[in-house]
Amino acid sequence: MLYAILCYAHEETVFAWSREEEAAVMEKLHAVQAPLEKAGKLGPVGRLMPTTAATTVRKGRDEPLVLDGPFAETKEVLLGFYTVDFETLDEAVAFAKDLSAVNPGSSSYEIRPFYVFHPGQITASEAIV
Question: The YCII-related domain covers which part of the protein (predicted)?
Fold first, then answer.
């Protein structure tokens, strides 16, 4: 089963790190990720830019509205994500705990199973179990 592990953080903390602090955190995170990468279980990992770089398309009365910034104003923001292939949710939880232990900038990791859709091959209703 593929899992998305979403990293939430206080943006003002993470983007205030010096280059040295950032490099130290990334080195620790890479050490946690390396065994999964070697086993071929780690998929794409993404780091999102700050919410100040976000654009939101929101349903409007007559047509969609394009807005600067994130959809919601919150203290914690989605900082990035991992895609990982685990047999069980317990494995995903253990990985998220390891990430949390070495990442001083994260406040939580959300874990969700997900499906990769390929147009014409499967519908959303067929994928949802």
Answer: 1-114
